[in-house]
């Protein structure tokens, strides 16, 4: 039986969840491998379209994960599926993206072009560190001539070893600014990638795991799947407290150690009063809400404090702005400092 029962699969984000800039995030590799060894299916669902499944699988293997190309689903793959709904095989497609993205497009029966003069039926836009003004301009020209604009994903940033780099969404924004056309996106936060992953694995109840509320978690929620948010990447406590309904995870954990420490019981990871903490609304004005955190056992953790606050913040009608969280006890004060 899987150690994460009742779930039969993990749908894992990569950047900020499994690795950062290609280096394994602490506790990720050994805990994912342990899940895989316990009859749990594992798939890697990534918005990064700059690398093909073979290359991604190779990088996963290099950090010690037991992965193969069939375990990887990229937004580039999902984008090709989306393109097939707009154009017939043999149609010209202008690809702004990596060579691996272009190869996927060719494999789907399209003709890859790099000029608007070739009258492409579709412009596919995915992340590529080498994309520059010329490529973006050809895309803009093609779109103005009537090509359908599709993006692999709309992530504004890309986590890397040095920090957050410019993501595909920021490059897409340049084309949108020049054309007025907002592309349909194949990747997260849409549900398509999660539906494809579930179908590919043949599983019934997957658990979506990610670090970013507006993509990983929102996509899992849109797909009707339970979600686990890990605090190893983009979205931290502040983002969680202010999260809108469609971006609220089922469970919150510090990192992937939780996959094997919970023995399948994730109930303690859900927002609820815990660790001896209590939380209540101190005031609610037109500007927002102030929540007061009190109590806390001597051995209580900052994460228990956060889940306690979330249980109140997420219960408020109308999803008001949380303008402050204040402490009413020394333990609460220490906890808030850890994540505020």
Automatic annotation (TrEMBL):
Organism: Corynebacterium tuscaniense
Name of the featured protein: HAD family hydrolase
GO cellular component entries: cytoplasm
Keyword field: Hydrolase
PANTHER family cross-referenced by the UniProt entry: 4-NITROPHENYLPHOSPHATASE-RELATED (PTHR19288), D-GLYCEROL 3-PHOSPHATE PHOSPHATASE (PTHR19288:SF95)
One GO MF term: phosphatase activity
Pfam families: Hydrolase_6, Hydrolase_like
Domain of life according to the entry: Bacteria
């Amino acid at each position: 039986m899987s150690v994460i029962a009742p779930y039969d699969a993990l749908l894992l984000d990569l950047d900020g969840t499994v690795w950062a800039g290609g280096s394994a995030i602490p506790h990720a590799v050994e805990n994912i491998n342990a899940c895989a060894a316990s009859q749990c299916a594992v798939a890697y669902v990534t918005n990064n379209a700059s690398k093909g499944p073979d290359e991604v699988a190779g990088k996963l293997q290099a950090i010690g994960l037991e992965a193969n190309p069939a375990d990887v689903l990229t937004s580039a793959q999902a984008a090709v599926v989306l393109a097939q709904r707009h154009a017939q095989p043999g149609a010209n497609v202008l690809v702004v993206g990596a060579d691996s993205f272009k190869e996927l497009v060719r494999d789907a029966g399209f003709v890859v072009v790099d000029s608007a003069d070739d009258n492409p039926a579709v412009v596919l836009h995915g992340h590529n560190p080498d994309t520059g003004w010329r490529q973006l301009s050809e895309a803009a020209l093609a779109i103005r001539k009537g090509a359908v604009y599709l993006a692999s994903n709309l992530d504004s940033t890309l986590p890397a070893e040095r920090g957050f780099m410019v993501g595909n969404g920021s490059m897409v924004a340049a084309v949108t600014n020049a054309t007025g056309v907002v592309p349909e996106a194949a990747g997260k936060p849409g549900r398509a990638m999660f539906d494809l992953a579930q179908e590919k694995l043949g599983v019934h109840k997957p658990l979506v795991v990610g670090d970013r509320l507006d993509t990983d978690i929102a996509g899992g929620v849109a797909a009707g799947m339970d979600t686990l948010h890990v605090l190893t990447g983009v979205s931290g406590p502040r983002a969680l407290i202010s999260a809108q309904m469609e971006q609220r995870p089922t469970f919150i954990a510090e990192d992937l150690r939780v996959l094997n420490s919970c023995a399948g019981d994730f109930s303690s990871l859900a927002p609820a009063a815990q660790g001896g903490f209590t939380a209540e609304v101190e005031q609610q004005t037109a500007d927002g809400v102030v929540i007061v955190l009190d109590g806390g056992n001597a051995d209580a953790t900052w994460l228990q404090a956060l889940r306690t606050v979330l249980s109140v913040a997420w219960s408020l009608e109308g999803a008001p702005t949380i303008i402050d969280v204040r402490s009413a006890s020394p333990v609460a004060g220490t906890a808030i400092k850890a994540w505020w």
